[in-house]
Amino acid sequence: MDLILPLPDDFHIHLRQGKDLVNYAQSAMQQFGRVLAMPNTEPPINSAESVKKYKEEILAAAPNLEVLLTFKLNKNYSEQELREMQKNGAIAAKYYPLGVTTNSQDGVAKIEDMYPTIELMEKLNMVLCLHGEEPGAFCLDREKEFLKHLEKLCKTFSKLRIVLEHVSSAEAVECVKRLPQNVAATITVHHLILTLDDIVGDSLRPQNFCKPLPKLPKDKEAVRAAVFSGNSKFFLGTDSAPHSLEKKECLCGAAGVYSAPVAIPILIEEFENENKLDLLSNFIAGFGADFYGIPRQAKKVAYTKKEWQVPKTIDGAVPLKAGEVLRWQK
Ligand code: NCD
Ligand code: ZN
């Protein structure tokens, strides 16, 4: 049996840099037609020149991938700098609070310090992508405690489009639903299927460790309900974030789930299990494009119902559901 889908968009992916970028960009190209690449490389993407160079590097590795860029919002930019970044392909800024995730040691302590740039972004119709976690709060409460900043941003910049990335808590889902239409959220595949139990329940599973943490069963249910209700404010951003085995399994293991190679097969399975396959196209290739104001993907891709086993490692990283059997493949 075949399932014809629009070629998916991923509105949140980490493609890394250097040698790693080649593999990860090619893997992404096998699954997605269009991706929004995150800027938390070292050094970060934070100038017109680095936006341009990063786009060129990604395209050199994956020529058929349509690449949309972000830049890191950890300093204030002039209107001219923003316009130049926009010209070079940046459609959004990514805000990381200080120290909450991988490569955020240069993140921001106080979001209000970025308001001058955010005001310019509103004027230039750029999107603000938020890593929504409050530094210093208890790990399971970090997202919930960030929501006050989202509410204030929304009041202060009523025309700014804001994406709360990788929502993982019932409170965040409710908040996004309640706020006006210029506020949306991405949802990852792993937050749809994991809870804290899958990281530290029976055994320690570093491959599932990521920020924001997958939380309680009620949180997973809220994230699932948002997706399976077909609400257009919620769309796919995998937050696929590969790290080598050595970086994951050591004294200070890195946060990030590598999901790009398995994201769409898992989603098909989840939507099928919920009897909601009719909602899948909008989630993977509709609502996100609409929110970002870009054309919906016209190309199609066929998936076949045929079991396959997820390799134990792909491109040197352990993927989500490594070793497990999935039901759908391209
Ligand atoms: C991401 C990474 O590894 O770059 N890690 C993660 O746990 N999600 C960064 C991020 O998006 O938080
Ligand atoms: Zn991310």
The average pLDDT score comes to 98
Radius of gyration: 18 Å
Strand line-up of the largest beta sheet: 2-3-4-5-6-7-8-9
Number of helices: 13
Strand content: 15-25%
* Secondary-structure element string: EEHEHEHEHEHEHEHHHEHHHHEE
Shape: globular
Helix content: 25-40%
Q: How many strand units?
A: 11
Largest sheet: 8 strands, parallel
Provide structural commentary.
There is one protein chain. The strands form 2 sheets. An 8-stranded parallel beta sheet has the order 2-3-4-5-6-7-8-9. Strands 1-10-11 form a 3-stranded antiparallel beta sheet. With 330 residues, the chain is α/β, with parallel strands linked by helices. It has helices spanning 18-31, 48-61, 79-87, 115-124, 142-156, 170-178, 189-193, 197-200, 217-228, 245-248, 263-273, 280-285, 287-292; strands spanning 2-6, 9-13, 34-37, 66-72, 90-95, 127-130, 161-164, 183-187, 234-236, 300-309, 325-329. Helix content is 36%, strand content 18%. β6 (127-130), α5 and β7 form a beta-alpha-beta unit. It contains 13 helices and 11 strands. The structure holds N-carbamoyl-L-aspartate and zinc ion. N-carbamoyl-L-aspartate is lined by residues 14, 40, 101-102, 131, 210-211, 239, 241, 255-256.
